[in-house]
């Protein structure tokens, strides 16, 4: 089987090196601190997500649960359809604000994520139930392994990898289940981003 090039982060999230020249990453020297916020601020809404739209002091413009439809839009009273897919909640807040201004002067608009139905992660390899999972909120590596039913008898629990498709390419993040279970190096139990794959050899 053709070996996929592995990228690791050395000092910051933007510093990578090829596995072919640097060796396989280990939990001892991997910079997990640089990855702690890798999922924040860039979660883009997709079809199936549910958001809350709150316009301060304007209940007629507010909704507790608005579905992002298959066409990528949400529907709001008076305002009508607003494109949401591909936007962050902050960007959607600004878009809604611009439309509400036609009815309310200087509105204050807050959009928050209620349910991330488009949030999917994958668990593959030596687990009891490999596949695609759609949690209702973000989960960490241990929780993902639990969703997959735990390990098969052949699993190499100290060689697990989280495969993350970053903006600069594929990154493989080492995860040692036994270390985390023993309370060591808890930083490696990262929150998973949408589209992450937990690979258990």
Please, could you describe this protein's structure?
With 201 residues, this protein is α+β, with helices and mostly antiparallel strands. It folds into 2 domains: 7-39 and 118-200, Roll (Outer membrane lipoprotein wza fold like), CATH 3.10.560; 50-115, wza like fold (2-Layer Sandwich). It has 4 helices and 12 strands. The strands form 4 sheets. A 5-stranded mixed beta sheet has the order 9-8-12-10-11, with helices on one face. A hairpin with a 7-residue loop joins strand 3 (50-55) and strand 4 (63-67). The chain is elongated. The two termini are 14 Å apart.
Outline of this structure?
With about 200 residues, the protein is α+β, with helices and mostly antiparallel strands. The protein has four helices and twelve strands; from the N terminus they run ββαββββαβββαββαβ. The chain folds into two domains: about 5-40 and about 120-200, Roll (Outer membrane lipoprotein wza fold like), CATH 3.10.560.10; about 50-115, wza like fold (2-Layer Sandwich).
């Amino acid at each position: 089987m053709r070996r996929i090039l592995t990228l690791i982060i050395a000092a910051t999230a933007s510093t990578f090196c090829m596995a072919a020249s640097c060796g396989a990453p280990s939990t001892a020297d991997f910079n997990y601190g640089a990855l702690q916020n890798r999922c924040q601020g860039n979660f883009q809404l997709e079809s199936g997500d549910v958001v809350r739209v709150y316009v301060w002091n304007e209940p007629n413009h507010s909704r507790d649960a608005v579905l992002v439809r298959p066409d990528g839009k949400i529907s709001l009273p008076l305002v009508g359809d607003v494109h949401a897919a591909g936007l962050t909640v902050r960007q959607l807040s600004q878009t809604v604000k611009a439309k509400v201004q036609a009815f309310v002067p200087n509105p204050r608009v807050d959009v928050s994520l209620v349910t991330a139905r488009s949030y999917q992660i994958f668990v593959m390899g030596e687990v009891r139930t490999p596949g695609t999972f759609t949690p209702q909120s973000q989960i960490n590596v241990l929780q993902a392994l639990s969703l997959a039913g735990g390990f098969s008898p052949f699993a190499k629990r100290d060689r697990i990898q989280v495969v993350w498709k970053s903006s600069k390419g594929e990154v493989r993040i080492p995860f040692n289940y036994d270390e985390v279970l023993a309370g060591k190096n808890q930083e490696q139990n990262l929150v998973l981003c949408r589209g992450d794959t937990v690979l258990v050899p």
